[in-house]
Amino acid sequence: MKIDASKPLEYSTEENSNKIFGFWVFLGAEIPLFATLFTVYFVMVNRFANGPSGKELFEIGPVLIETFLLLTSSFTIGLAIHAMRHGYKKAMMFFMGITLLMGLGFIGIEINEFFTYVHEGATLQTSGFLSSLFVLLGTHGAHVSFGFLWGAGIMIQLWRQGITPATANKAFIFSLFWHFLDVVWIFIFSFVYLKGLM
Amino acid sequence: MDLDKFKVHGEPLIYGAMVSIALATIGILVGLTYFKKWGYLWREWLTTVDHKKIGVMYILAALLMLFRGGVDAMMMRLQTAAPEMKFLDAQHYNEVFTTHGLIMILFMAMPFIIGLMNVIIPLQIGARDVAFPRLNAVSFWLFFMGAMLLNISFVIGGSPDAGWSAYFPLASLEFSPTVGNNYYSLALQISGIGTLITGVNFIVTILKMRAPGMTLMKMPMFTWSVLITNVIIVFAFPVLTVALALMMFDRLFGSQFFTMANGGMDMLWANLFWVWGHPEVYIVILPAFGIYSEIIATFSKKNLYGYTSMVFSMVIISLLSFLVWAHHFYTMGQGVMVNSFFSITTMAIAVPTGVKIFNWLFTLRKGRITFTTPMLYTLAFIPIFTIGGVTGVMLAMASADYQYHNTMFLVAHFHYVLIPGAVFAVIAGFHYWFPKVFGFRLNERLGKHAFWWIIISFNVTFFPLFFLGLMGMTRRMYTYSEESGFGPLNMLSFAGAVGLAIGFVILVYNIYWSTRYMPRDTTSDPWDGRTLEWATPSPIPAYNFAVVPNVKTRDAFWAAKQDNVPLFEDKITKIHLPNNTGKPFILGVIFFFLGFFLVFSMWIPAIVAGVGVIIMLAAMSFDRDHGFYVPAEEVIATEKKLRGETV
Amino acid sequence: MIKQLFPIRHVMGYLASLVLSAAALIVIYGDLSQTANMTVLLITALIQASLQLFVFMHIGESADTKKELYLNIAYALFVGLVTIFGTLFIFVWGWYS
């Protein structure tokens, strides 16, 4: 493997920079994926049949906590990458750990929110609106959960192998994924929750 | 557990299919054991990460599916050959036309094209492999397992039966209570993920791994077409992913997306399906344009006319392909503005396509044309595809479409587009590149026989359908009365279908015959080719190029031959290659079971399989395999042997 | 060390995203028209998304793929927006009535 020392570690081999580029292309595919889910949601948003509407259902409190957690975790994963570029393994692991914990907190709140909805009789089967809501939020939540497992796997590799071209590359790609989830959440926050409560 | 839902009842035909599948499976297993080929199969094929072998497997799978889809087609034409035929009942007819469409588009045309691009693209751009060889294997096995999942539906549980477009509410649990459409949503989902990964892989490969000197505007036209196709794949397939997931939720978990009550909206399915479905048409047709461009240039001994306009017309087609989808449902109820908008965008696509047709004609003009088999298919493509295109413009006019909608006219139109636009292209490409992969040509005489059978029979089969459509015969009707007067033209169409089948039998026989008797070719450039794939020995060594070529012009190999510009200037050094791995195959098998368990709502096994998928992904992430090096001496020895010199 | 661990651009980006999220709350606590509300949501969301893309994801940092990455995102947004607005055009604004 040729290592190009003039570039950051995660870009340093041809394979590494291909992987980063490839992941960007994959994120490009995620944009129409979430756009389609938003399409479905926007078409369904007023079709709540006998079930509750968004205005009746949404509570701003938990949503704000979720938003804060995700925004902050996006910040800390960015810090982890900065620490990585300076070679601070411990600081990097620390920030990554914080990121994952906040992700876990986010998932916890979201699951709790789903339970509350179901408890109030608003389930996946109730109406077109609720189906689209659950699937949009659920797809984002599934991404976060997958990200949690993935990030944990990368942390194990970092801990064992240290910051190498391979692990740095993985961590950097993971950070792209995590930031992207934050972007999606911003749109959910704005156009599902805030618009619903408007 | 209720075993009844696994069974498919009915006809001797189905039982015959079951028995033949069982016999074929046993035959393959016994054969492998008897000839002690298990190890060979595992080492050389199931675990391979070599793009050429993966490409060959794609093409083999596509040929297999072509047979399956072709048998479906024959059954349909036989059933409608005469009024009141009793060959198939309505249910089986529904299943047969559904699987015919699904298999031909998603499991024949797509893998055939992906197979050709796997074999050829790295060679055309002077690369040693694709960007992510292991992911490439994952792509293949996901596609393959998806295809298998759909195919077993015929004998376990019942096939999807709501048309390849699976419109709701017909495809809902209420009106299609069998597991058929569960198979639809899951089989397509699994192979769709594979296709999406292929898309990412090839975009990175083409954009980042070209030989030094090959700028974008020096790429061969096939490479350009594949790049644009993969861009469409990456951005169109996620829409299908979502649509299929929603369908699965509706059918397995009782959600209300496409239902008729509780705020569901059945038309949303048609909408999402075609948001993906129309770009999908261009996914199978654009590579065909690339293949034809290569063949026309090679056999006219001329540079491709209008290279830049070819590229731009493809870029424009790729953008427009996302703006036309509503023309598939003009009659659904949207307003005049909507139909007008989509009508105009649809007709606009004819412009860049027309540009391409004229470019091909101008390339032929004053060329020294040799009429080889691939060239014949290409020449036949131009007029036939034009008929398909012109009838497409007729269909694009929203008000006129109220007459044509869902008639046999439409069926004739899309066969006139897709068969020359995809099938002839892959057959032409198959003949053209066959010697590159296997080191000998297919027999030209047999190839031309097959060609004439196929071309003439194609027109006999599908031209009558235009008239049947105008007479009022709707698509997907399983029988009709004598008074309707549809009989004679349908009989003619059936005769054509028989001719097509004969043509394909000759084509397959040609493969067998040529394998046995055709002389081996040591020049590695049998057609006097123009692009880099002909610059490496045939069959192609594992590392593709002993020395990475230096590209200075378009059609670099042609320039090298004409003007003696050296292509390979560097010394041979050791070459890095990836190791084989069994994980993609295992992942594919687990996905197959995950899909199967979900189809039958067997939750606990499905969860186990889901965990298995995550474990496999983790195992692939933790893998620290850096591949191996082929030493320079070994490369030199292989090169000498392949080029026919004694070591 | 602290400066290296907490680069100022990054911290500012984070604070900006918090402020923008808070600012968007005006649509439920304020008393604006429907149009004004939607404008606020669109603007805050778009700025935040760009913050992530440019400040956190460093989309412009790799010189050899910069152009491709922008094209990639542009094409993805084209398809995504066409899907959203095309569908709404068909089913909501342009529905036959």
TrEMBL record, chain A:
Could you tell me what reaction this enzyme catalyses? 2 a quinol + O2 = 2 a quinone + 2 H2O
For this chain, one GO molecular function annotation is:
oxidoreductase activity
Instruction: Indicate the principal place this protein occupies in or around the cell.
Output: membrane
- CDD domains in UniProt: Ubiquinol_oxidase_III
Query: Where in or outside the cell is it found?
Result: Cell membrane
Question: Which enzyme type, at the first EC level?
Answer: oxidoreductase
* Keywords of the record: Cell membrane, Membrane, Oxidoreductase, Transmembrane, Transmembrane helix
Q: Where is the Heme-copper oxidase subunit III family profile domain?
A: 1-197
Q: Which domain of life is it from?
A: Bacteria
Transmembrane ranges, per UniProt, are: 21-43, 63-84, 91-109, 129-159, 171-194
Recorded hits in Pfam families, A to Z, give: COX3 (PF00510)
Q: What is its EC number?
A: 1.10.3.-
Topology versus the membrane, per the UniProt entry? Answer: Multi-pass membrane protein
Q: Which family does it belong to?
A: Belongs to the cytochrome c oxidase subunit 3 family.
Q: Which NCBIfam families match?
A: QoxC (TIGR02897)
Q: What does this protein do?
A: Catalyzes quinol oxidation with the concomitant reduction of oxygen to water.
Protein name from the UniProt record: Quinol oxidase subunit 3
**What's the source species for this entry?**
Paenibacillus auburnensis
Tell me what gene encodes this.
qoxC
TrEMBL record, chain B:
Residues annotated as domain Cytochrome oxidase subunit I profile: 36-552
Stretches that traverse the bilayer: 12-35, 56-76, 96-123, 135-156, 183-207, 227-249, 269-292, 304-328, 340-362, 374-398, 410-430, 450-471, 491-512, 585-618
Is the keyword Electron transport assigned to this protein?
yes
Report the domain of life of the source organism: Bacteria
**Keywords linked to the UniProt accession:** Cell membrane, Copper, Electron transport, Heme, Hydrogen ion transport, Ion transport, Iron, Membrane, Metal-binding, Oxidoreductase, Respiratory chain, Transmembrane, Transmembrane helix, Transport
Name the needed cofactors.
Answer: ferriheme a; Cu cation
Q: In which pathway does it act?
A: Energy metabolism; oxidative phosphorylation
Q: Which Gene3D superfamilies match?
A: Cytochrome c oxidase-like, subunit I domain
Subcellular location per the Swiss-Prot or TrEMBL entry: Cell membrane
Q: Which reaction does it catalyse?
A: 2 a quinol + O2 = 2 a quinone + 2 H2O
The record's top EC class is: oxidoreductase
Give the similarity note.
Answer: Belongs to the heme-copper respiratory oxidase family.
Protein name, entry field: Quinol oxidase subunit 1
Which organism was this protein described from? Answer: Paenibacillus auburnensis
Automatic annotation (TrEMBL), chain C:
Q: Where in the cell is it found?
A: Cell membrane
Q: Look up the domain of life of the source.
A: Bacteria
The UniProt catalytic activity note for this protein reads: 2 a quinol + O2 = 2 a quinone + 2 H2O
Q: Give the chief site where it resides.
A: membrane
| Name of a matching Pfam family | COX4_pro
Judged by the first EC level, this protein's enzyme class is oxidoreductase
Q: How does it sit in the membrane?
A: Multi-pass membrane protein
Q: State which Enzyme Commission number(s) the record gives.
A: 1.10.3.-
Q: Where are the transmembrane segments?
A: 12-30, 36-57, 69-96
Entry annotated with the keyword Calcium: no
Q: Which InterPro entries match?
A: Cyt_c_oxidase_su4_prok, Cytochrome_c_oxidase_bac_sub4, QoxD
Q: Which family does it belong to?
A: Belongs to the cytochrome c oxidase bacterial subunit 4 family.
- This protein is called Quinol oxidase subunit 4
Query: What is the species listed in this Swiss-Prot or TrEMBL entry?
Result: Paenibacillus auburnensis
Q: What gene is this protein a product of? A: qoxD
